[in-house]
Design brief:
6 helices, two-stranded antiparallel sheet
Amino acid sequence: GRALATGSVRLAGHPSLADLPGHGSGDWWVQDAAAALAARVLAPRAGERVLDLCAAPGGKTMQLAAAGARVTALDLSEARMVRLRENLARTGLAARVVVADALTWDPLTPDEGADPGIGDAGFDAVLLDAPCSATGTIRRHPDLPHVRDPSGLRALADLQAALIDRALDLVRPGGRVVYCTCSLLPEEGERQVSAALARHPGLTCDSTTADLPGAEPSWAAKGGGLRLRPDFWADIGGIDGFFIACLRRPE
């Protein structure tokens, strides 16, 4: 394997992952290097209350929990949450797991593992990996342009905007929301952030390349955030296309 500057390890070839040392004992999990950057941008601190919206199958949940955060993992799909629970059990990591609609969920609703400490203040941070076109995976799925229905993009963009607004409702004043999509389309990335800044006076977008290990200046997106493309790291197999931005709610 090859250690990447961003903290991931890239394996050569296509080994049977379940047979590799450390998989069954939960020492590691599988995640594209670009996807793993979102939790690093959020930079959770031990003891922080962090909400992982649209959390399944749980790669980012595990990253946040491994950093010592008190994680609530929420997803609409019970079927996909089965895999998240399996991943947590395999790795020995803990999170409050909630199956609900992010747009209507009340964090104070009693449920198994509820965190009464959230109160009215909100979460310290929210990680929103929003549903998207998945055009960023084109290096691994070259047939993607032929199977995606472009007419659904408007509905996806509307959902992303609604989820950003909801995430900002759930985070405390001064807290941060990391918004990301595995998409190459500005409508699902840069334009979502500029629209959110226009909708929410006082909201800011952090510069995310300066303190992020392995980040290169060319990754900086116009207006803030990171813009990753499949042709980056071409000499070692590329990286998924991703947009990642850290929005900070005013105090």
